[in-house]
Amino acid sequence: MREIASIPTGQGPHDVAATLDGRFLLVANTQANTLTVLDTNTLRPVAQVSVGAFPTDVAVLPAE
Length: 64
Fold this sequence. Notes:
By secondary structure, the protein is mainly beta. It has strands at 13-18, 24-29, 34-39, 44-50. Strand 3 and strand 4 (44-50) form a beta hairpin. The model has no long low-confidence stretch (mean pLDDT 94).
């Protein structure tokens, strides 16, 4: 593997998950208590969401 880009997220990025359609990556930022949403086409953050204390994991589930 090799690095192809460095993308800014919140402090302490810890876990990452892709949406089912592959359009977005979700990054848990443990030190910032946020979730960063990244656009996979532009490799840029599109949202920063407050999620509570010390998020460590991210999961994407299919809609029912």
